[in-house]
Amino acid sequence: MVRKFTLLVIISSILLIPLITFANTNPDASKILAKTANLKIPFVENQGQVKDNGVKFFAQTFAGTVFVTDKGEIVYGLVKPEEKSKSAESKSQKPEKNESPSNPPFVKGEKGGFKSLSLRETLVGLQNLSIKGESKAATQINYFVGDKSNWKKNIPTWESVNLGEVYNGIELKLKAYSKNIEKLFIVNSEGNVDDIKLMLDGAKCIKVNNAGELDVETALGSIKFTKPVAYQEIDGKTVEVKVEYIIANEKPSPFTYGFKVASYDKTYPLIIDPLLASTFIGGGTSEYATSIALDSSGNVFITGYAPSGYPTTVGSYDTLYNSGLHDVLISKLDSNLGTLLCSTYIGGSSADDGYALVIDSSDNIFVAGYTSSSDYPTTSGAYDTLYNGSGDSFVSKFNNNLDTLISSTYIGGDNSDYISCLALSASGDLYLAGDTYSSGDYGFPTTPGAYDRTYNGLYGWNMYSDAFVSRMNNSLSSLLSSTFIGGEAGDYSNSIALDSSGNVYVTGSTISPDYPFTFGAYEYINRYNPHVGYTYDVFVSKLNSNLTSLLSSTIIGGYGGDIGCAIGINFSGDVYVAGETYSSNYPTTAGAYDRTLNYSYDGFVSKFNNNLSTLLSSTFIGGDNTDYIKCLALNASGDLYLAGNTYSSGTYGFPTSVGAYDTTHNGSYDVFVSKMNSSLSSLLYSTFIGGSDYDYATSIALDSSGNIYLAGYTISSNYPVTSGAYDSTFNGGSDIFISKLGINDLPTAITLSSFTANYKGKMVMLKWRTASEIDNLGFNIYRSDSEDGEYIKINKKTIKAKGSSTKGASYNFKDTKIEQGKSYWYILEDIDSINGPTKHDPVKAEGKSGKVKTKKKNKGK
């Protein structure tokens, strides 16, 4: 059965690049304009307010008025204030009445007035037209101007305007925001993207710039429409399809442009869409986000810390800053990042930092971190309501609206204690991990029967931190279990996760030569750092749910410094650890994506089996400068999402993928987001996101649709934000950012149905079958003596393929240069004409019996 498909093309400038840059001389006015730059603007029906009867709807944006005519034209009446001269400052420039498409809303003024421009877009080859407003807005308009007989009351406004099926199978909708217009083409199964052509009259020139944006130069400035991105949802995965602007003519105005879409599977939906949502949050000083999570409704919560001025909401638990260096912040936004639903401080008279946030099955919010406030808010009946001195950890529980502190407790000892991460069990118990210096008579609390109740971080006269893991009940009234874990030097927990059996996994970094290990674990001695004072290694430790037994524990690292920053567990119970390494000999595995350290610091990802006895796969990821992985997330298919920071911008910069949101490093540290397959052999997607200054990602979360939410902080005033975002203006110092991306896999050239290798006489016969092929240039075959060994290409010429076929094809290859009776492993590689090669999982030709052992096929890159 052929499925109906939909193609959604978002043409407009989604990244809130203003249509015209206003040159305000009044700083207060500038701030007001900036703060309202994210507003949605409704379309108003023309009931005679605009004297041109050809106008059906109009929207009054901050950059001018946009008209929709009865001919389907979109006319932009753009304006720009001119810089005032002293002689002109006293002159008054008033808007003209009766504005229309041919008479933009401001006069062409002298100095101190306004310049205006009419820019007209026409649908070339328009076939049908049926203009109507859609999604009635709450706003109603009244016009009481001039003669009473011309007054208009209660004129409706609309969130969007639908122009109907403008081409066969293609519908057009418009939306307006403060400084841009969004055009959406909806292409049904009978539609053809090639039919979409727009003639632009009034521009000096148009071009597609190096970023893939459509750059329209006008007399008043530049308009940029963001690069379109296309993707399909196939078998629960998002698969990217290449799309780009094309310019039909290079002659002077009017110009014509359209879209070019690469081959794709038309039995599935195809969507063209950019960055989904992105916003600043800040108050003009320095604010930091450290953790992000989503509730069951898809709302977005962050925590971190901020000084005074951070935005809070009326009715929230604490709208006022509590003094000290900074307070903990907690904020809730809708899934589109357009509305700050609620936001609160919590803190005392000294420094308070939020480091971790999780949400339970009842959508209650747990926040944990560090406080040096003896008056940090606690609640009656909580585990510990008294400050223990020198800096304690805290855990606080809020309701979903952040207006009620349900419970709140200290947890700590006689020295500094830090909670860095949280996890919730299926029953709602809360697991905490971090590090502590509390070693005295009133040390960090442990519980009877715990794995280790003795502080370990004392070496000679030196005191080092111990890692800890603790478990509290959901009401924070009881410490159910708590243990140290560490050696004689420094041990730091950075991330925690639970498997389906409730076992607890922790990763971090250690310089302790005696960090606890278990026999049979992957690496049971710290062989590279045999003495205290050397560089860090990664530790990965597994405890039972009661924290009474260390089930398995291992060290992984090289000669340099290695830090585990994030941990996750897939549906099979495999354990992923990611972080940063300075070690050129950090362990990697055969077939991994990248086995070579690219610079002094690279990101790494390592995959262990559930009992940490086997390193299943391990890879570097990085470029020609410093790269750090800070957080990870896993989807239901086992694909791995990574986020972090990169300074790699040169010829061998941080790897990005074809068609990614942003393939260009923007300056200083950029955020990166990467997606890898479960075996860590392929980079499915990778993009930069950032501005011209420093940008840091700290936390990542996935929603049920596979969209990615990132939180972090930036000092880039031009960090990308989107139309309709809560706050599209950088506030100064460092701002928090939250970004939502709908990232897409690189499309593979084939869907592989089967791949087998069998002995046939004195040769091995390889056979494979494709279910479909798109832009497939051909195949290569690689052979190895072992599954984890080096694979060598054995075909001299690329094996020819069908190219593009919805029915697929069958292929075979004879390997004759073998030793009889010996087993071999084979990898099949397809070559996509746009996105390059994809290696599929290996199959084995069994030498003795001739039976073939195959692994599950990898359909991703």
Detailed description of the structure:
The protein is an all-beta fold. Among the domains are: 7-88 and 95-272, no CATH class; 750-854, Sandwich (Immunoglobulin-like), CATH 2.60.40. It contains one helix and 59 strands. The strands form twelve sheets. The chain has a 17-stranded mixed beta sheet that branches. Strands 53, 54, 56, 57, 58 and 59 form a six-stranded antiparallel beta sheet that branches. The chain has a four-stranded antiparallel beta sheet with strand order 21-50-49-48, with no helix packed on it. The protein is flat. 51% of the residues are buried. The model is unreliable at 1-38, 83-99, 102-113, 525-533 and 850-861 (pLDDT under 50).
Q: What is the percent of helical residues? A: under 10%
Measured on Cα atoms, how large is the radius of gyration?
A: 30 Å
Output the number of helix runs.
Answer: 1
Structural class assignment: mainly beta
The major beta sheet can be summarized as:
17 strands, mixed
Strand content: over 45%
Keywords:
single chain, 861 residues, mainly beta, Immunoglobulin-like, 17-stranded mixed sheet, 6-stranded antiparallel sheet, 45% strand, flat, disordered C terminus
Write the layout of secondary structure elements.
Blueprint: E1 7-10, H1 27-35, E2 40-41, E3 43-45, E4 55-61, E5 64-69, E6 74-81, E7 114-123, E8 132-143, E9 152-167, E10 170-177, E11 181-187, E12 197-201, E13 205-208, E14 214-218, E15 221-225, E16 230-234, E17 237-241, E18 243-247, E19 255-261, E20 270-272, E21 277-281, E22 288-294, E23 300-306, E24 327-333, E25 340-346, E26 352-359, E27 365-371, E28 392-398, E29 405-411, E30 417-424, E31 430-436, E32 458-459, E33 462-463, E34 466-472, E35 479-485, E36 491-498, E37 504-510, E38 537-543, E39 550-556, E40 562-569, E41 575-581, E42 602-608, E43 615-621, E44 627-634, E45 640-646, E46 670-676, E47 683-689, E48 695-702, E49 708-714, E50 735-741, E51 750-760, E52 763-773, E53 776-784, E54 792-793, E55 809-815, E56 824-832, E57 836-839, E58 843-845, E59 852-854
Parallel strand pairs: 1-20
Antiparallel strand pairs: 1-11, 2-10, 3-4, 3-9, 4-5, 5-6, 6-7, 7-12, 8-9, 9-10, 10-11, 12-19, 13-14, 14-15, 16-17, 16-20, 18-19, 21-50, 22-23, 23-24, 24-25, 26-27, 27-28, 28-29, 30-31, 31-34, 32-33, 34-35, 36-37, 37-38, 38-39, 40-41, 41-42, 42-43, 44-45, 45-46, 46-47, 48-49, 49-50, 51-52, ...
